[in-house]
Amino acid sequence: MSLISLVDEGRQWFKARVGFEPHETALDQSVCSHAILSEDFTEIPDMGADSRTVDNPLYIGDPRVKFYAGANLVAPNGQPIGTLCVLDTKPRTLTEFQRQALQTLSRHVMMQLELRKKIRIEAALRAEMDHRVKNSFQTIASLLRMASRKVKDADAKDVLALVERRFTAVASLHGELMTREGKDTVGADSFLNQLGKLLAAGAPDNVTVTCTADPGELQVIQASAIGMIVSEFVANSIKHAFKGGRAGEVTLSLRSDGDARWLLECRDNGGGHEPSGSRGTVSGADSTGLGQKLMATAAEQLNGRLTTDFTPEGAVMMVSFAK
């Protein structure tokens, strides 16, 4: 039988056990409570011949435990908290190699316990950080909305609205990253769907926003750039394509082209953002709007080229980039 036994004020309980049924015992049955008061290692070849254990309920019980050997589990502060122990129903004596092995395993157990504690602490800190960052995002978004209501200049309003959209995209990316447990990638489908929900929530009643995305992994910088492009396209569609309360739809898709490339496609069925029939490639050099320039910059971050097509049936924007 083997146990990882932790000694508490009034009991010993077993973090793990093999061949031993109880989950815990009272201290009057605990050989480990004697062991942690002794040296780092305790071996009792015959419990019936040892004054510490001759009247122990384990020895006089059924089945009768006659052999005990335990290596202390020592916390970083030097305090023994229990033992890694082995038991038998007959007397025996360990070899020197077995004693050393049990002591080595006890140190390994303690390392695993400390590692689990650190993981729990890091998880708590990460949750606290996530909470604080989300609160910061909400505070800044509220300040931006308040400032936008007070500002009269149209260009200033556009800039404030752009910054608010950028915060929406970053907040979505942050939320996705916090579910990834330290990974530096995000799920393409879950990220785009989460961002789409945030954009749909901010759209007017006459405009619907739908998203589809293939499964796959995106680097953080790729997700950030996609967030910029998608949020600006939706904002431009709402502003220019559905004037006068015209009903319409914005569709966003991210499709995987085999193992090599992604294709991001944004569409609306409005009246077009530019004069009907115009067609072109958006780049930082020939764009006039700040939002377009930011989208072009985001496309460059993806090492892709942003193309647009404006027709009376609506606008299409696409960018292909390597995985």
Low-pLDDT sequence parts = 275-288
Could you tell me the radius of gyration in angstroms? 33 Å
Strand arrangement across the biggest beta sheet: 3-2-1-6-5-4
CATH fold type of the largest domain: Heat Shock Protein 90
Pfam families: GAF, HATPase_c, HisKA_2
Domain Histidine kinase/HSP90-like ATPase: 225-314
Protein name: Two-component sensor histidine kinase, contains HisKA and HATPase domains
Domain Signal transduction histidine kinase subgroup 2 dimerisation and phosphoacceptor: 128-198
Brief overview:
Keywords: Kinase, Transferase. This protein has seven helices and 14 strands.
Description:
The chain has 323 residues and is of the alpha+beta class. Helix content is 42%, strand content 27%. The chain folds into two domains: 2-117, Beta-Lactamase (2-Layer Sandwich), CATH 3.30.450; 184-322, Histidine kinase-like ATPase, C-terminal domain (Heat Shock Protein 90). Strand 2 (11-18) and strand 3 form a beta hairpin. Helix 4 (154-177) packs antiparallel against helix 5 and helix 4 runs antiparallel to helix 6. The chain is elongated and about 95 Å long. Residues 275-288 have low confidence and may be disordered.
